[in-house]
Amino acid sequence: MALDLSGITQIVEDLIPWDTIRISTPAAGKPVFNPTTGQYEQPEADVVYEGRGAVQAAGTAAEVVSVPGLNQPWIAETRSKYRLLTPLVAPVAEKDYLITVVAVHTGGDLALLGRQWRVQDPGGAATMSVVRVTAIDQIQQTRGTS
Description:
Helix content: under 10%
Shape: elongated
Mean pLDDT: 81
Radius of gyration: 18 Å
Strand order of the largest sheet: 1-4-7-10-9-8
């Protein structure tokens, strides 16, 4: 006898405060000069999915790992433990895809906007899943000042 989780899936999905996220492939190719702005710009990435999703810290703020680089005693780039939740109907995010929050739910954390995360491993799949969980790492960014 098969266990039908569709009812549980709907209950869990109704409990999650979904934001709107975008999953895209990394831009391929070299930066292209834009004569209008006078800047080099990365080519457009292909959007794989845009829809419901939630970004959550996967641990405490102290759980940040810095990995030593080759020939360096320490490296400034850190690994931040986050996870992405998406409905099971969303496509599986592949390793190195980029995650961006494009809109937050009412009352949501506006600090999510403008940040990007990189998928660490393909999105999870399991026999008894009700949402897809994907390990992601925040991409370090420096915010420009005006």
